[in-house]
């Protein structure tokens, strides 16, 4: 009995003390020694870290077949079946982990914001702290290269594309009406309040097959996944009032905010170039609800916005000013679910619905239009391995548009269209190594209204040339339904989709807070809509014979390290673009294109003043316009454009901020273009009027106050 | 009978030896850490965590060692690696134990290291989260000296910036020092660190 007991202890202890040596060397794919690798026998404590020369050696008490693990963050964990008695001086070769932070990323054409350490061109706060942006996401993006400054419009014009060639997506789901309503030559702004989003990706070309119905660009906005704590936010501004509240529960949270904007006080103080009968007013509200499931997150986003204004616009064709009265009601609803299931599967799905109603009185005519748009989408993604990721999905877009024009003479014209587009897409990301990656995708769509199908391939490649730099190439075919100004007349003409192809060569360098991006591109347009009348009307003679091109170079430089407390970026764009579309008699450069654009954005933090001071200077060279007094089409050139904006955020205390901003500090008299009379005057000359900003300057003063149990949060991000 | 006794003896012995193996392993890892061999210590804890799925401590120390090392490093790439490693280890345990105050403190420290990494980008994004984590930890373990001390230290940074009074935080640090004296760790390897740093911070208060 005793003997057995002692024997058993003896057995166990001997088994503990019979040790075998395991040794070898760890190298990477290039044969270089790797130090600091944790090498051990799975399920035991036996192991060691590899030394400077990659060598490791340790004793183990295990016997027989075991699994040897070699783990180090930037490499894929290697598991080898070994026979303990026979594992000395063996070489372990580690494969690069392509998901590591220093791996190549496919970046051609994309500016990203977000991420804690990755190269971020725009940081989340930039949207609101860029002078001149006044909290408008779109205005902040206009300081990036590849965009055109079209002050009389306010929308995004990307690389020779019209504004409607950019589509906006919230959580992957399309926003049918991303901009506020506006009248001709009165700039609009983005509908979304920037503080609801924490990731923004702006692609100026060559984007993923997941997105369609955009010839030039996609803007992807992702709402925040989580909020920090309960809080109430109050803003008092020279242009209106805002109120917001956030509630957080265990698994869910709700944010609601509302604002009332009235430009009357501003218009009273600052001399206006436009004659306002009733100032711009808007009442808007947004709400986001988030619910966290064990394996996913559900988000519901809804926004309502009602705005109106009434102006007398000078019109070169009439001796009296023309009165424009606009009422817009907009509702947008978006719900999305993102989650994981099974083994390495990810699901993203969502629905959006947008309703926009305009009531416009132009002089004595009444125009009422309504657009109802919906988007259904699902996408699944599967990681086949660490190196291959597949995704595929489907889209369904529904658009119903109706317009009634009742003219003073009593005639009523009703037009409209229903468009249904179904699309499927598939894409895969392939990492050949940590240095070389490719993204290959296709998109296939069928458009009911146009009775056509299209197949669009997309491909991009990225190669890391050195530790801090990489080169990318991208190619893609893109198609888009002609905009509603045309297809509302599809009763009279069978339109076809407009098409574009993008070719992009991108170089990116990034090191210690400095980023350089240089991108050369060529875009070919075809199938653009043409018509033969001075303006678009039902009896215009339409065809799809238009074409054009855009080529250019975009350069971006950002530096936040060289000078203490200063962040700045410089964007330069060169573009050469011509088109023969619309009612152009010949191929010419459209009036929204300036050949050279330069933006400089600076932000300087003065600790002792508790202030951030920012300047933004935007410059662009002359834009073309057509002067009917001259023989050659689009022969006129405006003068160059310049705008220097300034802002100052003063933190009164942790929860109170005073904010001041002014645009066009220098009072530059900018001219965007000229409107010419339809008919010549008695001397045979076409008169003209200059298209200028509604006011030379915009002033803004605001006070932002956050009430929460947590004393550290403030609304700096709202500004 | 002999069979049963043998089995019991065998079972008890294996339990005993397993127990001592854990203690031995943890002891060795602490020794390495004490010698300043951070990555070896972290690797040792990592090996223990791979073998002992039931204890949260090995992963806790992997996270703590790497986070502390990140604060002492200037090389941005290295910080990135250390914090990624810390976060990965912590995530393992947070899923199992979302209401463990010691884990919450380390999570707050990781976020604080990210704020130091790039204040412009991460300050606004994470400082709220840090405060939330400390508030949660304090609700769970109001008498834990590390919770009180780390929270006060984070608040002092902000108070200095605003030029507001740091007295309330200093009082909290003093309170933490008192609690360190009476704090009873649950096991021999449970966290006990923090007194030396709190003493330095308290000296800076004066």
Automatic annotation (TrEMBL), chain A:
Domain TonB-dependent receptor plug: 118-213
GO cellular component: cell outer membrane
Coiled coil: none
Signal peptide: 1-20
Record keywords, A-Z: Cell outer membrane, Membrane, Receptor, Signal, Transmembrane, Transmembrane beta strand, Transport
Pfam families assigned: CarbopepD_reg_2, Plug
Principal subcellular localisation of the protein: membrane
Family: Belongs to the TonB-dependent receptor family.
Protein name: Outer membrane cobalamin receptor
Automatic annotation (TrEMBL), chain B:
Record InterPro entries: TPR-like_helical_dom_sf
Protein name: Tetratricopeptide repeat protein
């Amino acid at each position: 009995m005793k003997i057995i007991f002692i024997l058993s202890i003896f057995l166990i202890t001997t088994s503990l003390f019979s040790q075998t040596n395991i040794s070898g060397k760890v190298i990477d794919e290039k044969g270089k020694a790797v130090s600091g690798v944790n090498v051990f026998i799975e399920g035991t404590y036996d192991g060691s870290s590899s030394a400077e020369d990659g060598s490791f050696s340790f004793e183990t008490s295990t016997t027989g077949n075991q699994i040897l693990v070699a783990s180090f963050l930037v490499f894929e964990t290697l598991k080898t079946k070994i026979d303990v008695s026979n594992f000395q001086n063996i070489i372990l070769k580690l494969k690069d982990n392509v998901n590591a932070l220093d791996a190549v990323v496919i970046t051609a054409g994309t500016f990203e914001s977000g991420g804690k350490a990755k190269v971020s061109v725009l940081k989340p706060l930039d949207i609101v702290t860029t002078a001149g942006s006044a909290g408008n996401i779109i205005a902040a993006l206009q300081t990036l290269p590849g965009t055109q400054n079209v002050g009389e419009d306010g929308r995004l014009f990307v690389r020779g594309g019209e504004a409607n060639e950019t589509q906006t997506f919230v959580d992957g789901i399309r926003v049918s009406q991303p901009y506020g309503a506006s009248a001709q030559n009165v700039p609009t702004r983005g509908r979304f309040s920037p503080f609801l989003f924490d990731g923004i990706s702006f692609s100026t070309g060559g984007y993923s097959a997941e997105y369609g119905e955009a010839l030039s660009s996609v803007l992807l906005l992702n709402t925040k996944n989580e909020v920090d704590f309960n809080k109430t936010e109050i803003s008092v501004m020279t242009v209106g009032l805002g109120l917001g509240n956030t509630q957080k529960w265990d698994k869910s949270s709700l944010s609601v905010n509302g604002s009332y904007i009235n430009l009357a006080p501003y218009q009273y103080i600052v001399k206006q170039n436009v004659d306002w009968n009733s100032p711009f007013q808007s009442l808007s509200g947004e709400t986001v609800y988030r619910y966290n499931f064990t394996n996913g997150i559900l988000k519901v986003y809804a926004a309502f916005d009602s705005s109106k204004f009434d102006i007398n616009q000078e019109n070169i064709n009439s001796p009296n000013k023309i009165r424009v009265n606009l009422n817009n009601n907009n509702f947008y609803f978006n719900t999305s679910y993102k989650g994981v299931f099974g083994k390495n599967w990810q699901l993203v799905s969502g629905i959006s619905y947008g309703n926009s109603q305009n009531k416009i009185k132009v002089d004595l005519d009444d125009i009422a239009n309504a657009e109802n748009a919906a988007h259904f989408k699902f996408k699944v993604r599967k990681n086949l391995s660490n190196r291959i990721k597949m995704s595929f999905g489907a889209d369904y877009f529904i658009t119903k548009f109706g317009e009634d024009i009742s003219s003073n003479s009593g005639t009523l014209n009703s037009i409209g269209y229903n468009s249904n587009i179904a699309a499927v897409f598939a894409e895969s990301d392939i990492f050949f190594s940590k240095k070389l990656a490719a993204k290959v995708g296709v998109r296939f769509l069928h458009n009911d209204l146009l009775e056509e199908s299209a197949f669009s391939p997309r491909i991009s490649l990225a190669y890391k040339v050195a530790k801090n730099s990489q080169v990318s190439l991208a190619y893609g075919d893109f198609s888009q339904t002609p905009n509603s100004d045309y297809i509302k007349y599809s009763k009279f003409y069978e339109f076809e989709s407009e098409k574009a192809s993008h070719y992009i060569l991108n170089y990116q360098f990034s090191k210690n807070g400095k980023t350089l991006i240089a991108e050369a591109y060529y875009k070919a347009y075809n199938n653009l809509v043409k018509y033969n009348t001075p303006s678009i009307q039902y009896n215009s003679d339409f065809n799809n014979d238009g074409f054009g091109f855009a080529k250019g170079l975009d350069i971006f430089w950002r530096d936040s390290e060289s000078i203490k407390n200063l962040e700045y970026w410089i964007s330069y764009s060169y573009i050469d673009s011509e088109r023969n579309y619309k009612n152009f008699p010949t191929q010419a450069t459209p009036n929204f294109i300036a050949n050279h654009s330069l933006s400089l954005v600076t932000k300087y933090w003065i600790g002792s003043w508790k202030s951030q001071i920012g300047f933004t200077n935007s410059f662009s060279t002359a834009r073309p316009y057509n002067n009917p007094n001259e023989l050659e089409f689009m022969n006129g050139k405006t003068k160059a454009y310049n705008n220097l904006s300034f802002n100052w955020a003063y933190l009164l205390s942790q929860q109170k901020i005073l904010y001041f901003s002014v645009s066009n500090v220098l009072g530059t008299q900018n001219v965007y273009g000229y409107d010419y009379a339809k008919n010549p005057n008695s001397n045979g000359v076409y008169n003209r009027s200059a298209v200028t900003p509604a006011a030379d300057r915009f002033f803004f003063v605001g006070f932002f106050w956050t009430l929460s149990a947590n004393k550290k949060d403030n609304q700096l991000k709202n500004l | 009978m002999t069979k049963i006794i043998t089995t019991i003896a065998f079972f008890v012995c294996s339990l005993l030896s397993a127990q001592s193996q854990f203690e031995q392993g943890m002891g060795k890892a602490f020794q390495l850490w004490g010698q300043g061999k951070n990555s070896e210590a972290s690797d040792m804890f990592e090996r223990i965590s791979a073998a002992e799925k039931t204890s949260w401590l090995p992963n806790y120390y992997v996270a703590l060692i790497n986070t502390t090392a990140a604060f002492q490093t200037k090389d941005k790439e290295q910080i990135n690696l250390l914090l990624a490693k810390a976060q990965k280890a912590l995530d393992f345990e947070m899923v199992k134990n979302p209401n463990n105050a010691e884990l919450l403190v380390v999570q707050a420290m990781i976020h604080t290291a990210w704020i130091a990494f790039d204040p412009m980008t991460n300050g606004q994004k994470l400082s709220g989260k840090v405060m939330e984590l400390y508030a949660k930890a304090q609700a769970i373990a109001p008498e834990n000296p590390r919770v009180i001390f780390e929270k006060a230290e984070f608040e002092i940074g902000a108070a200095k910036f605003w030029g507001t009074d740091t007295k309330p935080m200093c009082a909290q640090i003093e309170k933490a020092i008192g609690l360190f004296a009476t704090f009873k760790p649950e096991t021999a390897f449970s966290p006990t660190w923090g007194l030396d740093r709190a003493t330095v911070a308290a000296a800076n208060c004066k």
